[in-house]
Amino acid sequence: MSFLRAARAALASQSGLSRILVVAIVVLAGLFLSCGSSSHGLLAGSNHNAYVTLPQSGSVLLLYINGATGAITLGAQTPSVENSSPAGLALLGSKKFLYAANSRADTISIFNVASDGTLTLTGTPTPAAGSTPNAAVIDPSGKYLLVTNTNSSGSVSVFSIDSGSGALSELTASGSPFFANEYPTEILITPSGKFVYTTNPGLGTITAFTFSNGVLTKVPGSPFPSLPGGGGGAFGLAVDESERFLYVANPSAPNPLLGTAGNVSGFNIDPVTGALSQILGSPFTSTAGSGPTVLTVDPSGRFLYATTAGSSSSVWCFQINPANGQLVTVANSPFSLAAGGLFALFDPSGNYFYIGTGNGIAGYTYSSSTGVPTAITGSPFSTGTPPGKMVLSE
After folding, report:
1. Which region holds residue 186: left if phi is over 0, alpha if psi is between -120 and 50, else beta?
2. Contact partners, residue 389, CB within 8 Å, separation at least 6
């Protein structure tokens, strides 16, 4: 349980002159790419907002992200609510609603998002329908919110979202909350919205569901062991954009040949059933560093990153083989950079990479050709108290 607490405590030319300008712009764009920017290009970057939970403060903090540099500036913070400990966040950007899972209060707070990004709490928080709500995600249709209830008789609660008010209604008639084995912690829904996966750190397993019209149905064979021999403390999840491959961080798995702990399991996803089978060569690990907790795949789908607390061998980077999902360590990985095991995510433009640390948020650019991260000026950015989870607006 101490691991779970610590882990809870992240987008016609018109004239000769016009043609010259177009060519110049193309050349400049090529120069940006050759210098190792994201494949989305720094020229496409625009300012946007992000949000992060502050469990110790009982609040949610607005962040402003500079599209040209990736730097973070702190915005307004919601009023503190004692004994709430907000953890997971989910943002329905198209409707301007933000949801925070309050792990200590067993509720879900609903915020309206104003045009300037500021948050206003709407009404009384909704009961989570389970104990210790932790992670939250909205399905691709924007109709449903899914929340893990991280307790010994763990479950996933499913709520329908009122498109006008953002209000939540639990789908009790459909069977919510759905049993998800002991201590379901992280949750992932695939890009198509067809499959849902949660990790069970205490069991070292992944619980798998199909998802349709708000109903979770257990995948045959679930839960699946994260490691062939069991154990490993399965935690963070990531999926490639084609949803052919699922990756799981095993923070405590031993690596006898290296004398380290922690690796990443890779799975093939059955496109019909959602069942998981180990990718050949799995699990994959780093030559140094221990205890990766969270994972993320870059927007191009080429690289998978695993991060752990500290600044020594703390950021692992693998290239994904698109043919079979195998992971190949990139040159010079692991990278000794400020990192953490709270969250890891890319901004919507794909230019910047953010990692939740014990004191704030570390920000990086990365090379679209090599995967190498480079610290953003001013990083890491302090949030005052340790962050919980982070989401970014479009």
Report:
1. beta
2. 10, 52, 53, 87, 88, 89, 135, 342, 343, 356
* CATH class, range 2-392: mainly beta
Q: Which residues pair with 196 in a beta bridge?
A: 189, 209
Asked if 93 and 393 count as a contact pair (C-beta separation under 8 A), the reply is yes
* Domain residue ranges of the chain, discontinuous segments joined by +: 2-392
pLDDT at 36 over 50: no
What the block records as the tokens of 114 is 């104003």
pLDDT in tens, 50-67: 999 999 999 999 999 999
Query: In sequence order, which residues have a C-beta less than 8 Å from that of residue 23 and are 6 or more positions away?
Result: none
The residue whose two tokens read 């939740």 is 356
What mean pLDDT do residues 190-213 have? 97
Q: How far apart are CA 95 and CA 38, in angstroms?
A: 29
pLDDT in tens, 146-182: 999 998 789 999 999 999 999 999 998 889 999 999 9
Global pTM reads 0.88
Local structure of 271: helix, strand or coil: coil
φ and ψ at 229, to 5 degrees?
A: -95, 0
Q: How far apart are CA 51 and CA 29, in angstroms?
A: 30
Confidence at residue 247, expressed as pLDDT on a 0 to 100 scale: 98
